[in-house]
Amino acid sequence: MKVEIWGDVTCTHCYAAKRKFEMALSLFKYRDQIEVTWRSFELAPGFKTDPNKFLPQFLQELHGISREQAQGLIDRVTDSVKEVGLDYNLNEAIPANSFNAHRLLHFAKVQGFQEKMEERIFKAYFIEGKNIDDVSTLTELAREIGLDAFEVKSALESTKFTDEVKRDLNEARQSGITSVPKYIFNSNRMVSGGQDSKVYLEILEKEFAMWQSSILKGSPETIDGQTCEIGQDCKF
Questions:
Q1: Higher-confidence residue: 89 or 219?
Q2: In the sheet where 35-40 sits, what is the strand order?
Q3: 206 lies in some domain
Q4: How many folded domains does the chain comprise?
Q5: Structural domain contains residue 65
Q6: Are 132 and 125 in contact (CB under 8 A)?
Q7: Which one, 25, 84, 99, 192, has the greatest CB density within 10 A?
Q8: Three-point CA angle 204, 208, 213, nearest 5°
Q9: What SS3 string covers the chain?
Q10: Which residues constitute the domain of residue 180?
Protein backbone atom coordinates (compact mmCIF):
# COMPACT_ATOMS: atom_id res chain seq x y z
CA MET A 1 0.00 0.00 0.00
CA LYS A 2 1.26 3.44 -0.88
CA VAL A 3 1.61 6.36 1.51
CA GLU A 4 2.54 9.66 -0.12
CA ILE A 5 3.91 12.44 2.08
CA TRP A 6 3.82 16.00 0.83
CA GLY A 7 6.30 18.13 2.74
CA ASP A 8 9.10 20.65 2.67
CA VAL A 9 12.48 20.07 4.28
CA THR A 10 12.23 23.51 5.89
CA CYS A 11 8.87 22.71 7.53
CA THR A 12 9.16 22.39 11.31
CA HIS A 13 5.97 20.32 11.56
CA CYS A 14 7.01 17.97 8.75
CA TYR A 15 10.04 16.66 10.65
CA ALA A 16 8.05 16.12 13.85
CA ALA A 17 5.23 14.43 11.92
CA LYS A 18 7.80 12.15 10.30
CA ARG A 19 8.85 10.93 13.74
CA LYS A 20 5.25 10.28 14.79
CA PHE A 21 4.48 8.41 11.59
CA GLU A 22 7.63 6.32 12.06
CA MET A 23 6.43 5.41 15.56
CA ALA A 24 3.11 4.27 14.11
CA LEU A 25 4.78 2.33 11.33
CA SER A 26 7.04 0.51 13.81
CA LEU A 27 3.91 -0.80 15.56
CA PHE A 28 2.09 -1.75 12.36
CA LYS A 29 2.01 -5.48 11.73
CA TYR A 30 2.25 -5.19 7.95
CA ARG A 31 4.82 -2.36 7.79
CA ASP A 32 6.88 -4.28 5.21
CA GLN A 33 3.99 -3.89 2.78
CA ILE A 34 3.88 -0.09 3.09
CA GLU A 35 5.61 1.94 0.37
CA VAL A 36 6.38 5.48 1.51
CA THR A 37 7.10 8.20 -1.05
CA TRP A 38 8.03 11.80 -0.28
CA ARG A 39 6.59 14.41 -2.64
CA SER A 40 8.05 17.87 -3.20
CA PHE A 41 6.42 21.01 -1.82
CA GLU A 42 7.84 24.52 -1.47
CA LEU A 43 6.76 26.74 1.40
CA ALA A 44 8.60 29.71 -0.09
CA PRO A 45 8.88 29.44 -3.89
CA GLY A 46 11.53 31.73 -5.31
CA PHE A 47 13.03 32.50 -1.91
CA LYS A 48 16.64 33.69 -2.12
CA THR A 49 18.99 32.06 0.37
CA ASP A 50 21.26 34.33 2.40
CA PRO A 51 23.84 32.11 4.18
CA ASN A 52 24.62 34.96 6.58
CA LYS A 53 21.06 35.33 7.84
CA PHE A 54 19.72 33.02 10.53
CA LEU A 55 16.16 32.17 11.52
CA PRO A 56 15.69 34.70 14.36
CA GLN A 57 16.48 37.66 12.09
CA PHE A 58 14.40 36.13 9.30
CA LEU A 59 11.35 35.83 11.58
CA GLN A 60 11.77 39.40 12.76
CA GLU A 61 11.75 40.71 9.21
CA LEU A 62 9.00 38.36 8.01
CA HIS A 63 6.54 39.15 10.78
CA GLY A 64 7.73 42.63 11.79
CA ILE A 65 8.35 41.53 15.37
CA SER A 66 11.06 42.05 17.98
CA ARG A 67 13.98 39.74 18.62
CA GLU A 68 12.34 38.66 21.88
CA GLN A 69 9.10 37.79 20.10
CA ALA A 70 10.99 35.85 17.44
CA GLN A 71 12.82 33.95 20.15
CA GLY A 72 9.52 33.14 21.80
CA LEU A 73 8.25 31.56 18.57
CA ILE A 74 11.46 29.57 18.25
CA ASP A 75 11.33 28.37 21.85
CA ARG A 76 7.72 27.18 21.51
CA VAL A 77 8.51 25.13 18.42
CA THR A 78 11.70 23.75 19.99
CA ASP A 79 9.82 22.64 23.10
CA SER A 80 6.99 21.07 21.10
CA VAL A 81 9.24 18.65 19.20
CA LYS A 82 11.13 17.37 22.20
CA GLU A 83 8.34 14.88 22.85
CA VAL A 84 9.34 13.02 19.68
CA GLY A 85 13.06 13.10 20.48
CA LEU A 86 14.05 16.05 18.31
CA ASP A 87 16.37 18.77 19.59
CA TYR A 88 15.99 21.69 17.20
CA ASN A 89 18.73 24.30 17.03
CA LEU A 90 16.69 26.94 15.24
CA ASN A 91 18.85 29.88 16.28
CA GLU A 92 21.49 28.50 13.91
CA ALA A 93 19.10 27.50 11.12
CA ILE A 94 19.72 29.20 7.76
CA PRO A 95 16.41 29.92 5.98
CA ALA A 96 16.93 28.42 2.54
CA ASN A 97 15.33 27.87 -0.80
CA SER A 98 14.51 24.14 -0.80
CA PHE A 99 14.32 23.49 -4.56
CA ASN A 100 17.82 21.98 -4.83
CA ALA A 101 17.17 19.82 -1.79
CA HIS A 102 14.02 18.48 -3.46
CA ARG A 103 16.00 17.73 -6.63
CA LEU A 104 18.44 15.74 -4.51
CA LEU A 105 15.57 13.83 -2.94
CA HIS A 106 14.35 12.80 -6.39
CA PHE A 107 17.89 11.70 -7.26
CA ALA A 108 18.02 9.68 -4.04
CA LYS A 109 14.62 8.13 -4.80
CA VAL A 110 15.94 6.67 -8.05
CA GLN A 111 18.83 5.15 -6.09
CA GLY A 112 16.55 3.75 -3.37
CA PHE A 113 17.82 6.22 -0.75
CA GLN A 114 14.98 8.72 -0.52
CA GLU A 115 14.03 8.00 3.10
CA LYS A 116 17.64 8.25 4.31
CA MET A 117 18.17 11.42 2.31
CA GLU A 118 15.02 13.03 3.68
CA GLU A 119 16.11 12.33 7.24
CA ARG A 120 19.64 13.59 6.63
CA ILE A 121 18.46 16.88 5.11
CA PHE A 122 15.97 17.45 7.93
CA LYS A 123 18.72 16.94 10.50
CA ALA A 124 21.14 19.18 8.62
CA TYR A 125 18.64 22.02 8.48
CA PHE A 126 16.95 21.89 11.88
CA ILE A 127 19.77 20.65 14.09
CA GLU A 128 23.13 21.26 12.43
CA GLY A 129 22.59 24.71 10.93
CA LYS A 130 23.69 23.70 7.43
CA ASN A 131 22.81 25.58 4.26
CA ILE A 132 20.63 23.08 2.39
CA ASP A 133 20.61 25.25 -0.74
CA ASP A 134 24.37 24.84 -1.17
CA VAL A 135 25.48 22.23 -3.71
CA SER A 136 28.66 21.27 -1.85
CA THR A 137 26.71 20.84 1.39
CA LEU A 138 24.04 18.71 -0.27
CA THR A 139 26.73 16.64 -1.99
CA GLU A 140 28.40 15.90 1.33
CA LEU A 141 25.10 14.96 2.96
CA ALA A 142 24.41 12.57 0.08
CA ARG A 143 27.88 11.04 0.37
CA GLU A 144 27.32 10.43 4.08
CA ILE A 145 24.31 8.20 3.40
CA GLY A 146 26.06 6.20 0.70
CA LEU A 147 25.35 8.03 -2.56
CA ASP A 148 28.09 8.70 -5.10
CA ALA A 149 29.36 12.24 -4.49
CA PHE A 150 30.50 12.80 -8.07
CA GLU A 151 27.14 11.78 -9.51
CA VAL A 152 25.25 13.92 -6.98
CA LYS A 153 27.38 16.98 -7.63
CA SER A 154 27.06 16.57 -11.39
CA ALA A 155 23.28 16.25 -11.09
CA LEU A 156 22.90 19.28 -8.84
CA GLU A 157 25.14 21.43 -11.03
CA SER A 158 22.91 20.59 -13.99
CA THR A 159 19.13 20.85 -14.32
CA LYS A 160 18.50 17.17 -13.63
CA PHE A 161 15.37 16.36 -11.63
CA THR A 162 14.07 19.89 -12.09
CA ASP A 163 11.09 18.57 -14.06
CA GLU A 164 10.34 15.97 -11.39
CA VAL A 165 10.17 18.62 -8.68
CA LYS A 166 8.02 20.90 -10.84
CA ARG A 167 5.61 18.05 -11.56
CA ASP A 168 5.14 17.50 -7.84
CA LEU A 169 4.60 21.21 -7.26
CA ASN A 170 2.05 21.37 -10.08
CA GLU A 171 0.22 18.33 -8.77
CA ALA A 172 0.09 19.88 -5.32
CA ARG A 173 -1.50 23.03 -6.76
CA GLN A 174 -3.99 21.04 -8.81
CA SER A 175 -4.90 18.99 -5.73
CA GLY A 176 -5.43 22.11 -3.64
CA ILE A 177 -2.53 21.39 -1.30
CA THR A 178 -1.47 24.70 0.22
CA SER A 179 0.05 23.54 3.51
CA VAL A 180 2.15 20.65 4.73
CA PRO A 181 2.56 18.00 5.96
CA LYS A 182 -0.08 16.10 4.05
CA TYR A 183 -0.22 12.31 4.30
CA ILE A 184 -2.20 10.49 1.61
CA PHE A 185 -2.98 6.86 2.36
CA ASN A 186 -3.79 4.45 -0.47
CA SER A 187 -4.67 7.41 -2.75
CA ASN A 188 -7.82 7.52 -0.68
CA ARG A 189 -7.47 9.41 2.60
CA MET A 190 -5.66 12.68 3.14
CA VAL A 191 -4.44 13.55 6.62
CA SER A 192 -3.49 17.18 7.12
CA GLY A 193 -0.92 18.40 9.62
CA GLY A 194 1.06 16.45 12.18
CA GLN A 195 -1.00 13.88 14.08
CA ASP A 196 -0.42 11.72 17.12
CA SER A 197 1.23 8.39 16.34
CA LYS A 198 -1.96 6.62 17.49
CA VAL A 199 -3.94 8.44 14.80
CA TYR A 200 -1.47 7.41 12.11
CA LEU A 201 -1.59 3.81 13.33
CA GLU A 202 -5.40 3.71 13.26
CA ILE A 203 -5.46 5.07 9.72
CA LEU A 204 -2.78 2.63 8.59
CA GLU A 205 -4.81 -0.29 9.91
CA LYS A 206 -8.08 0.90 8.38
CA GLU A 207 -6.67 1.85 4.98
CA PHE A 208 -4.57 -1.31 4.74
CA ALA A 209 -7.63 -3.45 5.38
CA MET A 210 -9.50 -1.58 2.64
CA TRP A 211 -6.54 -1.93 0.30
CA GLN A 212 -6.36 -5.69 0.88
CA SER A 213 -10.10 -5.98 0.33
CA SER A 214 -9.92 -4.08 -2.96
CA ILE A 215 -7.15 -6.37 -4.19
CA LEU A 216 -9.23 -9.46 -3.43
CA LYS A 217 -12.31 -7.99 -5.10
CA GLY A 218 -10.28 -6.98 -8.10
CA SER A 219 -8.86 -10.46 -8.68
CA PRO A 220 -10.73 -12.08 -11.58
CA GLU A 221 -12.38 -15.43 -11.00
CA THR A 222 -10.89 -18.15 -13.21
CA ILE A 223 -12.89 -21.10 -14.58
CA ASP A 224 -10.68 -23.67 -16.25
CA GLY A 225 -11.51 -25.23 -19.62
CA GLN A 226 -9.78 -26.23 -22.81
CA THR A 227 -7.06 -23.86 -23.89
CA CYS A 228 -4.30 -23.59 -26.41
CA GLU A 229 -0.81 -22.82 -25.19
CA ILE A 230 2.07 -21.29 -27.09
CA GLY A 231 3.87 -24.00 -29.06
CA GLN A 232 1.04 -26.53 -28.86
CA ASP A 233 -0.80 -28.05 -31.79
CA CYS A 234 -4.44 -27.08 -31.21
CA LYS A 235 -5.98 -28.64 -34.34
CA PHE A 236 -7.71 -31.40 -32.38
A1: 89
A2: 35-40, 2-7, 182-185, 189-192
A3: yes
A4: 1
A5: no
A6: yes
A7: 99
A8: 155
A9: CEEEEEECCCCHHHHHHHHHHHHHHHHCCCHHHCEEEEEECCCCCCCCCCCCCCHHHHHHHHHCCCHHHHHHHHHHHHHHCHHHCCCCCHHHCCCCCCHHHHHHHHHHHHHCCHHHHHHHHHHHHHCCCCCCCCHHHHHHHHHHCCCCHHHHHHHHCCCCCHHHHHHHHHHHHHCCCCCCCEEEECCCEEEECCCCHHHHHHHHHHHHHHHHHHHHHHCCCCCCCCCCCCCCCCCC
A10: 2-53+94-218
Q: What is the pLDDT of residues 182-216, one digit of tens each?
A: 999 998 899 998 899 999 999 999 999 999 887 76
Give pLDDT tens digits for 143-177: 999 999 999 999 999 999 999 999 999 999 999 99
The domain that contains 145 carries what CATH number? 3.40.30.10
Half-sphere exposure of 176 (CA within 13 A, CB side): 2
Q: What is the pLDDT of residues 19-69, one digit of tens each?
A: 999 999 999 999 999 999 999 999 999 999 999 999 999 999 999 999 999
Residue 189 CA, chain-centre distance (Å), reads: 17
Residue 113 lies in a domain: yes
Give CA–CA dist 193/179, Å, rounded. 8
